[in-house]
Write a structure and sequence with these properties.
heterodimer; A: Aspartate Aminotransferase, domain 2; Aspartate Aminotransferase, domain 1; 3 domains; 7-stranded mixed β-sheet; 13 helices; 12 strands; globular; B: alpha/beta; 3-stranded antiparallel β-sheet; 14 strands; 38% helix
Chain lengths: 485, 452
């Protein structure tokens, strides 16, 4: 499709600002003015609306397709949360208002939402305190590891390493490194969980903590998780819970009850705030009492009279990590979702997510290699190694599925499984939809036996076929205006 | 228990359990040991959609959005054309995820390529990434990028940089060995003599802001030329709407440009989500953090778009990545792109000029009030600093009763500036609102000074 800049026509207009009714024209001295005009396109409103509507139709999305992207929790995003987020009482609220003298009275509803979210998340996770500030999951990780560092500093601990399992999300090692620690990577055992004997060998007084996803990225729950906590705590290390997979264990296991000290929650996963084509997200972080003094400021306090206010007087705090109070409109959507579901509904989320994943696992394990043949949690990881022997790889199966109008599962992650295919159906998909997916996966396997060469042509039904990624990197073109940048 | 977002019927559940070979859903959770179950899980009972929205509505009513805003501080009350919200409400956009499978994500990918292009022409730079969280984290990422490029450890912050960003930078780099030098605060242009003194061959980068937090417009070309002599990279944080008129960081010669994109079609939303943008020169693109979309061709030679240069990113490079960022703010980037496309080339100039006119009119009206000092040492755009004869926070508090969010008092962030506030005037403020505002300020000052 032509870009929006290709469609521009000189002097066409799509918008007029409110009139300048003040009767004067101010001037900026020439030396401060731009010389080259900004080349935003010149289009009518209809041109713009049609362009983007047509673009949208080139996407797969949850609203249009089954989207079993492992580790991403692509569940249905209820429409009523959009209504909540667009209420002008929230959407037009300036974030500096509560920082004015007596300004908190102007934003009591918004502060209540944040305070209530802190309490709800604490109860759901078994942790004591939460901050809503982190702007995404990875940002929550960074906030958590910064608090870990502040804790050790305050205790006079000399720490150098953070332990991360080899099956972790890439954000974990990246975060640790950016926060100034080095990584110790621990491989999984044959059951697909962290090898506790290897862990014991690697733990020294220089270990600051451990970051782990539970259930892990193999979709498996580690029954020894509290033993791992004991080992890490024995060297005054901090247990970090990557909450990416919290959606599997709502009401079944709380991080705070099995020894975790700090965690983040991806609201776009467990609490179904929209993924937006790659954000925005929100990454609330919870801590136990021992890390509470280090939480970022501002904090939200409920006064004796029931009113809410901002509090900045926390001398041990790691300081500001976001400009204000977090990605408020996402937090509001998550809040609305939690209120609607309630306790029973939240339990049902995990129950059906785990049921759907195990059903897929059982139906496909005769066809695809299953590296860890045991009950799984909310997702299951297969390997396409049998198909790969016929020269049909995980990526080829992914492209086949696109032609079946199904968004592919995650492929080539986790890195611990060769030719991995990671499937997360979520609780919002029906058995009937999942059966269609299972049939498509079986068909892909069948075709890999009869006509493996066909896979190179997939996908065929999309507006474009496989892009030339080498060319994209070599002849880098990232900007319409410089053509070759 | 039935909730509207779970489709499985009891019959479905029964069939699925049979296939799995267990008797109940509880049996699926046997890996969780009895001593690992929750000590409590006391959450409220669920609500119907109607009851839930009613509850949220009641909370919304406890917020005051009736005040006429003259408050900015980096976050502005601009009008957002209706088509923006209409487009980003399309499920095909907002319920998709990161475009890992390009063949079925061309809508998001092309939009992000167009977004990058719109940011490049806005800032006068050559390459842009596909967004970062916000304007503050964007500066932090720029600092980390600069240190990766020249391997130096000293960072100089100009006095005019938004104090919120300064605080964020301090937090993020607390555990890293960085020599931070904050230049003194002056509410005019950057202090050339001082900057010349602190820039040296150990300096990695200098961070500038235009217009600065106090509203002063500057041309940083000379500072940038001086920085280049020492191999110092220049990070310039900009307010995008001002670039409808003002000299771009590209024209000044900046190396890395960052900014808060909220004013490009995003509601204020009590603090987020916002949009961090970042652009740079093409030589530095491989050191830039965040997703980057590139144009290429498919097997049949058709134009298409992909995530490119992914070897910089955490999902490939893990601890060696340029940043830990994964999810960014794609939908906000799209939102800003729709806004920029509607405003258009000519509309943008007019929008910036209208902001300038209304702010200047306001300044001239306030000048007529006894005790109010609006003198300035540099030109301003749509926000400016005012000196009052008393504590500005008291004045702002008193003006709430007259229906105004009158400005942001500077005492909270700057000791000794208790009598100053910054006032923002966007295209939305009418002549009448401005005159009423001036009247309110005048009477509040009279009332407060007589009561002292």
């Amino acid at each position: 499709m032509k870009t929006i800049f290709d469609k521009s026509v000189n002097n066409r207009r799509g918008y007029f600002s409110p009139s300048s009714d003040v009767g004067l024209t101010a001037e900026v001295p020439q030396q401060f003015k731009r010389e080259d005009d900004c080349q935003w396109p010149e289009l009518s409103e209809l041109d713009v609306v049609r362009h983007f509507t047509q673009l949208s139709q080139l996407n797969f999305s949850i609203d249009t397709n089954f989207y079993p992207l492992g580790s991403c929790t692509m569940k249905y995003n209820p429409k009523f949360t959009e209504v909540a987020a667009r209420m002008t009482g929230f959407s037009q609220l300036h974030p500096l208002l509560p920082q004015l003298k007596q300004g908190e009275t102007l934003t009591q509803g918004a502060l209540e939402v944040l305070y209530e979210m802190e309490r709800l998340m604490a109860e759901m996770t078994g942790l004591d305190h939460f901050t809503m500030q982190p702007l995404a999951g990875a940002h929550g990780e960074l906030t958590g590891v910064m608090m870990m560092a502040a804790y050790h500093k305050a205790r006079g601990n000399k720490k150098k390493y953070v332990i991360v399992p080899d099956s972790s999300h890439g954000t974990n090692p990246a975060t640790v490194s950016i926060a100034g620690y080095e990584i110790i990577s621990i491989p999984s055992n044959e059951d697909g969980v962290m090898d506790i004997e290897l862990l014991k060998e690697k733990v020294t007084d220089e270990v600051a903590g451990l970051m782990i996803t539970s259930p892990n990225t193999h979709g498996l729950f580690n029954s020894q998780i509290d033993k791992i906590s004991e080992i890490i705590h024995s060297v005054d290390g901090i247990m970090y819970y990557d909450g990416a997979n919290l959606n599997a264990v709502l009401g079944r296991c709380r991080p705070g009850d099995v020894g975790f000290d700090v965690m983040h929650i991806n609201t776009h996963k467990t609490f179904t705030t929209p993924h937006g084509g790659g954000g925005p997200g929100a990454g609330p972080v919870g801590v136990t009492k021992k890390l509470e003094p280090f939480l970022p400021i501002s904090r939200i306090i409920k006064a004796d009279d029931g009113s809410y206010r901002l509090s900045y007087d926390h001398p041990k705090s790691i300081g500001y990590i976001a400009p204000f109070y977090g990605n408020f409109s996402l937090l509001l959507r998550a809040y609305a979702y939690i209120l609607l579901l309630g306790e029973e509904g939240l339990r049902a989320v995990s129950n059906h997510a785990v049921l759907n994943a195990n059903y897929i696992k059982e139906q496909l394990k005769s066809v695809y290699d299953l590296p860890f043949d045991r009950l799984c949690m909310h997702e299951c990881v297969f390997s396409a190694k049998n198909q790969a022997e016929r020269n049909v790889h995980a990526i080829d199966i992914a492209k086949f599925l696109i032609d079946q109008k199904i968004h592919p599962p995650t492929v080539y992650f986790p890195l611990t499984v060769k030719e991995s295919i990671m499937i997360e159906p979520t609780e919002t998909e029906s058995k009937q939809m999942i059966d269609v997916f299972i049939e498509a996966m079986k068909e892909a396997d069948q075709l890999s036996k009869t006509q493996p060469e066909k896979f190179a042509e997939f996908p065929q039904t999309t507006p474009v076929s496989r892009p030339d990624e080498v060319k994209a990197a070599r002849e880098l073109n990232t900007n319409y205006f410089s053509k070759k940048s | 228990m039935l909730i509207p977002y779970i489709a499985n019927t009891d019959h479905d559940v029964e069939e699925m359990l049979k296939v799995i070979g267990v008797n109940s859903i509880d049996d699926l959770f046997v890996d969780i040991q009895p001593h690992q179950v929750p000590k409590s899980f006391n959450l409220p009972k669920g609500l119907s959609e109607y009851d839930c929205l009613k509850r949220i509505e009641q909370l919304a009513l406890k917020n005051s959005t009736a005040l006429i805003p003259f408050i900015g501080g980096g976050y502005y009350d601009h009008y957002i054309p209706a088509a923006v919200s209409s487009i980003i409400s399309r499920g095909e956009f907002y319920t998709a995820y990161t475009p890992y499978q390009p063949e079925c994500s061309q809508g998001t990918l092309q939009a992000l390529y167009e977004y990058q292009s719109a940011i490049c022409t806005l800032t006068g730079m050559e390459v842009s990434n596909a967004s970062l969280y916000d304007g503050g984290t964007a500066i932090y990422e720029a600092v980390m990028m600069a240190m990766r490029i020249n391997k130096r450890k000293k960072i100089v912050m100009d006095g005019g940089l938004n104090p919120i960003y300064r605080k964020m930078l301090r937090s993020y780099t607390h555990n890293l060995s960085i020599d931070f030098q904050e230049l003194p605060v002056a509410h005019g242009q950057s202090d050339r003599a001082h900057i010349k003194n602190v820039l040296d061959d150990k300096t990695s980068a200098i961070i500038l802001q235009n217009p600065n937090f106090f509203g002063a417009i500057d041309d940083h070309s000379d500072i940038i030329a001086e920085a280049k002599k020492h191999g110092v990279l220049v990070i310039e944080s900009v307010y995008p709407i001002s670039l409808g008129l003002l000299k771009t960081p590209g024209e000044m010669g900046a190396d890395i440009v960052t900014g808060e994109g909220q004013s490009l079609g995003l509601p204020l939303n009590f603090g987020g989500p916002y949009l961090g943008f970042m652009a740079t020169r093409k030589q530095l693109v491989r050191k830039m953090p965040g997703r980057i979309i590139g144009k290429t061709t498919d097997k049949k030679g058709r134009d298409c778009f992909v995530n490119t240069l992914q070897a910089r990113e955490q999902h490939i490079r893990r601890e060696k990545a340029t940043s830990n960022i994964c999810t960014n703010v794609s939908l906000c980037a799209l939102q800003s792109l729709v806004y920029m496309s509607l405003i258009g080339k000519q509309g943008f100039k007019e929008l910036a000029q209208t902001n300038l006119n209304k702010a200047e009119f306001t300044r001239l009206e306030l000048e007529k009030i006894e005790g109010v000092n609006v003198k300035r040492s540099a030109p301003t755009f749509n926000e400016f600093t005012v000196e009052l004869p008393m504590d500005a926070s008291l004045v702002v508090e008193a003006m709430i009763a007259d229906g105004f969010a009158a400005g942001f008092p500077l005492g909270q962030y700057y000791q000794g500036m208790e009598r100053y506030m910054i006032i923002a005037v966007t295209e939305k403020r009418s002549k009448k609102e401005i005159l009423d505002y001036a009247q309110s300020l005048k009477s509040v000052l009279e009332k407060l000074s007589s009561s002292v």
